[in-house]
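Escalated from tier 1: 3-hydroxypyruvic acid holo job.
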Amino acid sequence: MSSFRQRCLDRAPLIGTFSAIPHPVAIEVVAMAGVDFLCIDWEHSQISRERIEDLIRAADVHRVPAIVRVPGHAPESIAAVLDAGAAGVLVPRVSTAAQAQAAVMATRYPPIGERGVGPGRAAAYGYRIPDYLAKANAQLVLAIQVETAEGLANIGEIAAVEGVDVIFIGPGDLSVSIDALGPEGKEKLDGAIRTITQTALAAGRCVGIFRPSTSDIATWFASGISFYLLASDTMFLGAAMAENAVAARNLCNGQR
Ligand code: 3PY
Ligand code: MG
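Tier 2 regenerated the structure:
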């Protein structure tokens, strides 16, 4: 088993971020900053399929596991990023056990699933297919997102699907789907997050969540959530620039 998957299953605290900037430089900067893993966001960015392979390659240079959030449930998308050498896949908007099972089938090779064998980068372009086949099922991380009212209602059945490693909560979509937007919806949203967390932990899964900042991570870690995607490269870039521009302007104005 890869140490990354083992650390997920052990529920070790893992801190990553979304990579939305479609350039290997951004991947290298994030990787060198000390994250445990990163997640290339194919769902909500302008990153193309061909570019994904270069981004995974850039993360590999620094030995940082790169998973990819695919745009939907298509087995072809899951196969494409795993063939490119991703350490795992994050499948968005999983709302039923059947959808979770389909993600397992697309991610795992037989006898567990039905992923197709091919000469991708992960298998050294076909030169090491047996080596890759021997380790892929044990090493690849399958994370699925629960982020809809339907997913919340079905969390017991979803969490019971064998072959899923991480149940990842998407609070943004969940808040829209269960009508718990803004400060007024906080209690309802937190309650839904707690329900998903407790059910997934009871089924033996690792639980992850997106957080835009570190402000409440201690609370969620205490509730059993161990796998974090903290903001994104674009969010960190903008926030750091804004903070420093204000600080510099204040220093200049102080001299007037
Ligand atoms: C959400 O909050 O909806 C997400 O998908 C974050 O990853
Ligand atoms: Mg989402």
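The domain at 4-254 is CATH 3.20.20.60 (TIM Barrel).
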